UniProtKB/TrEMBL annotation:
The keyword Nucleotide-binding applies. Pfam families: ThiS. Belongs to the MoaD family. This is Molybdopterin synthase sulfur carrier subunit. It comes from the Bacteria. GO terms for molecular function: nucleotide binding. It comes from Candidatus Competibacter denitrificans Run_A_D11.
Length: 77
């Protein structure tokens, strides 16, 4: 039972990698995925989360095989 985690843009640069895999043990939310992988670093404010390519809230449950993506808000003009 594994979930796939992706990091984009400045988060990828800050963390030094583009992705991780995490064994899913019991019930877990998207925010708990971050906290498990990065216990020393709180989820940065305004970070967007997607579960299986759909925007999600931090409390969104994740399941075996899900993809969880974290990325900073996009701005442009």
């Amino acid at each position: 039972m594994t979930i796939h985690i992706k990091y984009f843009a400045s988060l990828r640069d800050r963390l030094g990698r583009a992705e991780d895999r995490l064994p899913l043990v019991g019930e877990m939310t998207a925010a708990e995925v971050w906290a498990t992988l990065w216990p020393e670093m709180p989820l940065p404010p305004n970070t967007l989360i997607a579960v299986n390519m759909d925007y999600a809230q931090p409390a969104q449950p994740v399941n075996d095989g899900d993809e969880v993506a974290f990325f900073p808000p996009v701005t442009g003009g």
